[in-house]
Amino acid sequence: MNTRTAAQRFADTWQHGWTHHDTDAIIALYHDDAVHTSMPFRPPHQGKHAIADYITWSFSSETDPHVTFATPLVDGDQAAIEFQVHALDNGRPTTLAGCVLVHFDPDGLAVRTRDYWHTTDRHPDPENPAS
Q1: Cβ–Cβ < 8 Å for 110, 98
Q2: Cα dist. 69→9, 98, 108, 131 in Å?
Q3: 126 or 81: which carries more pLDDT confidence?
Q4: What letter does residue 43 receive in the DSSP assignment?
Q5: Most exposed: 20, 41, 52, 77, by fewest CB within 10 Å?
């Protein structure tokens, strides 16, 4: 599969899957032996089942997510994709902004992913982000 196609499918599926908390749709993007790291100092999640458990846990306190993924930046068999989520976390407004780095196999499945993200306890005004 073309990496650009795989990366766009990854972004589109994550955007829809996160919006609807559809872990099954998201996990279909990963190779069985994939490794995912969420933030640099957390231990990696190894294998599709561990990644699915992490995603399910991540969604557990979140409601009403509004998710956007940017157009992927692709180089060789890798992509970088920015994302932003406005949601309620245990009823409190929160915004998560980050980037996922994805390495794809020849079939277009993610074999290695790494997230970098940050959260804030509010929904910034897009015209005045410092507000």
Answers
A1: no
A2: 11, 10, 18, 23
A3: 81
A4: P
A5: 41
Q: What pLDDT, on the 0 to 100 scale, is given for residue 80?
A: 98
Chain position carrying tokens 């399910």: 56
Using CA atoms of 86, 89, 94, 95 in order, give the dihedral in degrees to the nearest 10: -50
Q: Which of 12, 43, 50 is nearest to 29 (CA)?
A: 12
Q: Is 7 helix (H, G, I), strand (E, B) or coil?
A: helix
pLDDT tens readout for residues 3-58: 999 999 999 999 999 999 999 999 999 999 999 999 878 899 999 999 999 999 99
β-bridge pairing 110-120 and 62-69: unpaired
Residue labelled with tokens 């020849």: 106
- Dig out the tokens for 9 from the structure: 């499918």
**What is the value of pTM for the model shown?**
0.91
Helix (H), strand (E) at residue 102: strand 92-104
Q: How far apart are CA 6 and CA 129, in angstroms?
A: 32
Q: Residue 19 carries which side chain, given as an amino acid letter?
A: T
